[in-house]
Every structure is written in C-alpha cells, then in structure tokens.
Write a structure and sequence with these properties.
By secondary structure, this protein is of the alpha/beta class. The protein contains twelve helices and eight strands. It has one domain. Strand 1 and strand 2 form a beta hairpin.
Length: 299
Amino acid sequence: MIEGGRPARPWGRRIAAALLPCLLAACGTAEPGPQAQPAMWLVADADTRVYLLGTMHALPPGTDWDGGKVAGAIDSAGELVMELAPGELAAAGEVFGELAPRATPLAIDARLPQPALTRYRALEASGSDFGGDTLDDWAVVVLMAQRAAKNAGLSSSDGVEPGLTARFKAAGKPISGLETARGQLMLFETLDPATQRTLLTRAAAGSDAAMQDIDTLVAAWTRGDVATLAAEINADIDAVPAARRAIVTERNRRWTAWIAARMARPGTVMVAVGTGHLVGTDSVPAMLEAAGTKVTRAQ
C-alpha cells in the first residue's frame, strides 16, 4: 500500500518489536553493548508496590539495561510477572506452527500489490524463504518481523525478559505470566481477513525502512524517551483500529484490572511488559490513573 506517493509505515515491524515477545527470535554474541535506562513506573500504597518496566523483547547483544533504579526494583521485588511465563514462551514456536498455516495456500504475489511485493521479496532474499504462500497473512508478518529484527542485529536472548527470568530464578522468586502463547497468537489468528491483509500490505510496503525504524525504537527505549516511543508506535497502530483494539487496548484493560486487584495484597511485584503497553493515551499507566490510581515515573 502506498500512501501519498510514499511507502506505508512498517506497522508490523514496530509493533511486533515493542509488544509481542513470542514474535521475535534473533541471534548474536554477548559483547559489551549500549547502556540503557528504560522507562519504569511505580504504583504503590501502604503495603504494596508494583513496578511497571517497559521492555524490548529483543535488543542489541550486550545491552546493559538492568542498572540504576531498575536494579533496585529487581532486588526488592518478591515476584516477577511478564506477558508470558518462561514455559509459555518456550511453547510459542509450537503454537505458531499449529496456527500459522492457511487452509488453502495462496501465493504472496496474489496478495500484495507492487511495489509492496518487491520490498517483501527483497526482505525475504536476505535469508531463507518465508514460505509465505502456505501461511496466514498475520503469520507472514511475524516472520517478516523476525527477519527484520535479525537484520537489525537484535537478539531475543539479549532481550529484557531472559535477563529478568535468570535473575528471579537465581533468587528463587516466583515468575508468572499475564497471558499464554496461544492467547497471544490468537489475537492475530482471530483478526478479520481484511485487517490481516492490511497489516501484511503495510508491513511489506515499509519493509525497506524496517531496520531504521527498529533502530529508532531501540534508541528511544534505551534513553527512556516515552514521548518518542508513543509517537512512533501509535502512529503506526492507529492506522489499523481493529488491530489496535485487540492487540493493545483490550489487553491493557485486562492488565490494568489485574494490577488493581494485585494492589489488594501486600508485597512488591515487578511487572515487565512490552513498552508499547506503557506509553500513550490508552496505556496501562494511563488507564490506572483514569481509575484514580496514582502512578509515578520511577526511572
């Protein structure tokens, strides 16, 4: 899809990198990387503290993100809550393999207009064949997101979640998840066909700029630049309202309710979710504040 003579913004790349941990897989070596100060918020009352840490699910190898106020929050938290518990994250590949195939193959050439198809083929040529003819539109977007992340030098093993998991496991602290891998992928699987096709077309049309967009997101996340993160992510997802409702707004509403209920029990909790859920007008912090809960920026 071309808008105003220019490629459509690569929605699939940005939103996948920011929101869905089971979408990204890339490799890299552990070398010294950039220092990061990711945004973190705190919800607290007399006997409960809930830290909200905005994550990136894949990062440049060696990124140092767990210093500063984040280090203190990790040490003080008695439990970790992520989008997916470690077992669910491990099962994501199998669930993807089950849900992704189309009932009847359809050539990518028949789904994408030019020059979106040309850009799609260029991204595909940077690695192995996507096998997109046999997959649902949403699943092709997932594979494109993986490829773009890898091409941008990101590594899922260097994302925030593996580091948090290792720290909490070593300390013998419980780890749980807000969702299941199947539940996350069903958010895409149950999108109507027109919305799925829009996501695929926009992602393909903007894939030539995917690495630049990922770099912009990672840089903004590294410096805790909430305004830039909100502008970058929301500018893309606002263009696909049905996807926004399913993948962002409704999930944020469920997670907000979970946090509100958790505040009724004492203790300190680290809640680590994709940064896209913690910025913008319908973010978790915004929903908490709208319900009368005080949220403060902790880093």
